[in-house]
Amino acid sequence: MSPQDMTRDARLALACLDLTSLNDNDDAAAIDALCAKAQGPAGPPAALCVWPRFVAQARAALPASIRVAAVANFPDGALDTGRALRETQAILESGGDEVDLVLPWRALAAGDAAGPAALVAAVRAACAGKTLKLIIESGELPSPELIRRACSIGLDAGVDFLKTSTGKTGTGATPEPARLMLEAIAGHARRDAVGFKASGGVRTVADAAVYIALVRELLGEPALTPTRLRFGASSLLADIEALLLRQGSAGKAAAPGDY
After folding, report:
1. Domain residues for 219?
2. Annotation says 130 is catalytic
3. Is 133 a catalytic residue?
4. CA dihedral in degrees (167, 41, 65, 193; nearest 10)?
5. Which of 105, 169, 191, 250 has most Cβ atoms within 10 angstroms of its Cβ?
6. Of residues 18, 160, 197, 239, which has the active-site annotation?
7. Nearest by Cα to 14 from 238, 194, 219, 201
8. Is residue 256 part of a domain?
9. Within 13 Å, how many C-alpha atoms sit on residue 229's CB side?
10. For residue 252, what pLDDT is reported?
């Protein structure tokens, strides 16, 4: 990949980055540090992604242009609709813009599609008008058929993004399941209204470039925007900043013609 292409992908990855901190020991100081990182020299990410209890703090510390996302039913993906709804409501009441919901993937893998579908539909109704990303935990679903079924549940329920992983299991984002997810989006009636989020193990611009190329191939250039593409990561920002600052491209917002 040429330096020009790397710079282009770095700028796009930053514009589409959900800068994430979901550590068990996160505290107010860690969220303050995350908010400061989001306002660094290379420019802002699309969003911050935190635990629900930190949404109000992050929202107060950030400009409105940086969205605040938080996780629900995370990380285990229990088949517990009441819990998922309580956590979703807490996110919304604290000023959150986006909900990253874990699909009950273990229940799906055990043969129960109706229960997970009902949970996703209930959360979709509870956060109408807000961005809902469905984490299918693609690395833990043992077959392409289950990945496609998980995608169908989300697409039919009206989610805004399909997301690969929580980042809390042994396998995060990988290209093969990502292709299946993008093919599911491309083949659905809502294809132009649904985005893709790669999360779990996306640490470098080169990692992100793999998914940028897949989205370009399967969804087309119009999908290369923060409304259709996201990266969930914590360490990716450091590689983006190192590249952009070295190339003198920091602070230049990505534009559609640059993708």
Report:
1. 3-246
2. no
3. no
4. -50
5. 105
6. 197
7. 238
8. no
9. 28
10. 53
Helix or strand (DSSP H, E) at 71: strand 67-72
In this structure, is residue 79 part of a structural domain?
A: yes
Distance from C-alpha of 103 to C-alpha of 91, rounded to nearest angstrom: 17
9 given a catalytic annotation:
no
CATH number of domain containing 101: 3.20.20.70
Asked, for residue 254, whether it belongs to a domain, the answer is: no
User: Do the domain assignments include residue 251?
Assistant: no
> Alpha-carbon distance 101 to 62, whole Å?
23
Into how many domains does the chain fold? 1
Q: Which range among 2-6, 97-101, 187-191 shows the weakest confidence by mean pLDDT? A: 2-6
Would you say the pTM of this structure is higher than 0.90?
yes
Catalytically annotated residue among 9, 97, 100, 239: 100
* The predicted structure's pLDDT at residue 246: 87
Q: CA–CA separation, 53 vs 49, rounded Å?
A: 11
248 pLDDT band, cuts 50/70/90, is confident
What is the C-alpha separation between 62 and 37, in angstroms, rounded? 11
CB atoms within 10 A of CB 25: 5
Residue 255 has pLDDT above 50, yes or no: no
Report whether 219 contacts 194 (CB < 8 A).
no
Please spell the DSSP secondary structure of 195-207, one letter per residue: EEEEESS--SHHH
- Residue of 9, 160, 163, 239 marked active site: 163
Are the C-beta atoms of 49 and 22 separated by less than 8 Å? Answer: yes
Q: What is the pLDDT of residues 121-165, one digit of tens each?
A: 999 999 999 999 999 999 999 999 999 999 999 999 999 999 999
